[in-house]
Amino acid sequence: MAEQLTDDHLLGGRLRFSQPARGYRVAIDPVVLAAAVPVREGERVLDAGAGTGAASLCLAVRVPECRIVGLELQRPLQRIASHNVMQNGLDARVEMIEGRLERPPPRLAAASFDHVMTNPPHLAAGATSPSPARERTLAHVETSLDLAGWLAGCLRMLRHDGRLTLIHRADRLSEVLAALLGRAGEVVVVPLWPAAGRPAKRVLVQARKDARGPLRLLPGLVLHDDHRSFQPWLEDVLRHGRALDLADGGPDG
Asked: Is the CATH number of domain 27-242 3.30.70.360?
């Protein structure tokens, strides 16, 4: 591949993972996102804004019989994601496609997925100075779609009663909830606390399309202990692919 890549690993070495040496680099968010998707064997999942494929790969390893399609706007990232799928031998049930969420390729029919998982661009357009690395800007800053439009696109791809799972900035939670209002219910919000007593920077949100159940705000999960090490539950997610059951509030943080 033309891009300069680093050879890394996910899930404690179970997955080989290539990513750009500069620009878009994977942190813990996509791994935690994949752990929170309540997919069952035989179900179809759309990874909206798949990047280099980290969330898709982690979910595919955890649930061997599910099928995953990653949709990625940037051709260079889509190519790397496809490479990651191939080098892990997952190409029989994981596919990475280049395309826009607002105008998906014709082969991706609306209302055809049991689950959509997404880690949308975290910054509103104009909220920050553009990065010299174009790929990093497109991954982190909204362009053609704002957050409401992004989530509307995700819901459009879900079948009736399908579940949307996303991770996003805590300070944009009100926008997330507004975008779901009237379109999805049974919303579960899980704050991710960097450490005990610290404000949450991220939230996990899960909702069911066309449902009308009430919102639940769960106690949340603490990421780090007093020594800045990952909490045991997060080590299990990052190294062993442990699932997070948001319906039960997840593990003790």
From this structure: no
Contacts of residue 18, Cβ cutoff 8 Å, sequence gap at least 6:
1, 5, 6, 7, 8, 52, 80, 83, 84, 87
User: Is the dihedral angle over the CA atoms 29, 32, 37, 40 positive or is it negative?
Assistant: positive
- Distances from the Cα of 145 to the Cα of 112, 127, 139, 216, angstroms: 21, 14, 12, 27
Which residues in the chain come in under a pLDDT of 50?
134, 136-137, 139-140, 142, 253
What is the value of pTM for the model shown?
Answer: 0.91
Chain centroid to CA 202: how far?
A: 12
114: left (phi over 0), alpha (psi -120 to 50) or beta: alpha
CB 62 within 8 A of CB 54: no
| Residue 64 near residue 150 (C-beta atoms within 8 A) | no
pLDDT tens per residue across span 214-245: 999 999 999 999 999 999 999 999 999 999 99
The answer to whether 249 touches 191, Cβ cutoff 8 Å, is: no
Distance CA 136, CA 224 (A): 26
Beta bridge partners of 71: 48, 97
Which pair of tokens denotes residue 63? 């649930």
pLDDT in tens, 53-92: 999 999 999 999 999 999 999 999 999 999 999 999 999 9
Tokens of 244: 């997070």
Return the half-sphere exposure (C-beta side, CA atoms, 13 A cut-off) of residue 50: 32
Name the residue ranges covered by the structural domains of the chain. 27-242
Alpha-carbon Rg for the chain in angstroms: 17
